[in-house]
Amino acid sequence: MFFFLSKITTFLIDPLFIILALLLVFLLKGTKSAFTRLFFYPLFLVLYFASTGYISNTLMYGLEHIEKPSPLQEHYDAVIVLSGMTSDRMNSDDPIEFTGAVDRILAGISLVKQGRADYLVISGGDGSLGQKNEPEAKILGAFSRQWGLQEKQIRIDPVSRNTYENAVETAKLIEDSKTKKLLLITSAFHMFRSRGCFKKTGLEVDIYPVDYMAGKGIDDFRAYLPSSDSLAKTKLVIHEIIGIIIYGITGRATYSFS
Q1: How many CB atoms lie within 10 A of CB 36?
Q2: Which CATH class is domain 51-258?
Q3: What is the pLDDT at residue 1?
Q4: pLDDT at residue number 142
Q5: Is 120 exposed, middle or buried, given 0-12, 13-18 or 19+ CB atoms closer than 10 A?
Q6: Tens digit of pLDDT for each residue in 181-239?
Q7: Three-class HEC string of the chain
Q8: What is the pLDDT of residues 51-66, one digit of tens each?
Q9: Reported pTM
Q10: CA gap 30, 235 in Å, rounded
Q11: Which of 209, 227, 233 is nearest to 60 (CA)?
């Protein structure tokens, strides 16, 4: 009983759950205005469905599986890791705080240490509007050395600020080398747009998606209850879909379905 109650309580104290519950009470009891109901009923339904685990998981699963992972070759000239996995640091002495996307750099380091690739390319500068943070590629480069890679096994792009620039700057970084066999690593939800950007620059890459956030299905009643976490996941899906569309329209990515 305690276990059951602890899981339910998590939803009951979620601010979004409380807001939706109060909004529902307002709609059912608090107003008789036809105009108000006409506006708030659709708002309630959209917010409710967007914040359920069932909807967010279904949307994320579809996005993460547009691209299928490439069959890994025995060896690559380089593994390319896209940044976007650390929180801002107040100063360079603060410890690194990773997000769930840390799988990206861990996978890249592991493949190079296994001898599956000659070197690691880390792409990503300061993507903040203020441009006052240390480039993430430099932070991750230092982290890679701490985890056993040698200086000669690491190349960084510290200037790119978005996915398209990741591809452009990486192409510049390797254009004078004999690097041809490339493996791209990023989060699964971000892989379709990323591969499209690299294809636009003329770089053909195998792909190694990581950081999966959605399973095949949810058989738990909590999947139909609203939560802030699920709403955040839905927001991430919407943001990525908009990015895919805009990059396609503006010619920053070339897409193909595998």
Answers
A1: 13
A2: alpha beta
A3: 60
A4: 94
A5: buried
A6: 999 999 999 999 999 999 999 999 999 999 999 976 666 777 888 889 999 999 999 99
A7: CHHHHHHHHHHHCCHHHHHHHHHHHHHHHHCCCHHHHHHHHHHHHHHHHHCEHHHHHHHHHHHHCCCCCCCCCCCEEEEEEECCCECCCCCCCCCCCECHHHHHHHHHHHHHHCCCEEEEEEECCCCCCCCCCCCHHHHHHHHHHHCCCCHHHEEEECCCCCHHHHHHHHHHHHCCCCCCCEEEEEEHHHHHHHHHHHHHCCCCCEEEEECCCCCCCCCCHHHHCECHHHHHHHHHHHHHHHHHHHHHHCCCCCCCCC
A8: 999 999 999 999 999 9
A9: 0.87
A10: 30
A11: 233
Give me the count of residues in the chain. 258
Please give the structure tokens belonging to residue 196: 């499209």
Task: Output 8-15 pairs: Cβ under 8 A, ≥24 positions apart.
Answer: 11/222, 11/225, 11/226, 11/227, 14/226, 14/227, 14/228, 15/228
